[in-house]
Specification:
3 helices; globular
């Protein structure tokens, strides 16, 4: 991954998750397993996941991919399908994703 200050192009994806309260600890474990794998993907420029200090059920993802093709590859990765789609999403009360470009 590169220094965030050096990124000037790519596809930015943000995600907001609201976990079911009883699923927070399990979700944190899944995220800790998933994050280093996502960060090592060849098309990933930056990938960070944050948990709210004041509302621990809330998570914020900031992801920068080289391009749309890299994002598509990310969604087809085994770790995404297994950990995110298979294990994390069922533990969520809400999931929202948006895509952005650099200005």
């Amino acid at each position: 991954m590169v220094d965030l200050n050096g990124i000037r192009s790519g596809l930015v994806v943000t995600a907001f998750w609201d976990a079911k309260p009883e699923e927070v600890d399990a979700l944190v474990g899944i995220i800790r397993e998933f994050l280093p794998q996502a960060q090592r993907e060849p098309g990933v420029e930056a990938f960070q996941i944050h948990q709210s200090l004041t509302e621990p059920t809330k998570f914020f993802f900031y992801e920068v991919f080289k391009d749309e093709a890299a994002f598509a590859e990310h969604q087809q990765s085994e770790h995404f399908k297994t950990l995110i789609v298979g294990q994390a999403v069922p533990r969520l009360a809400r999931r929202e994703r948006t895509q952005h470009k650099f200005v």
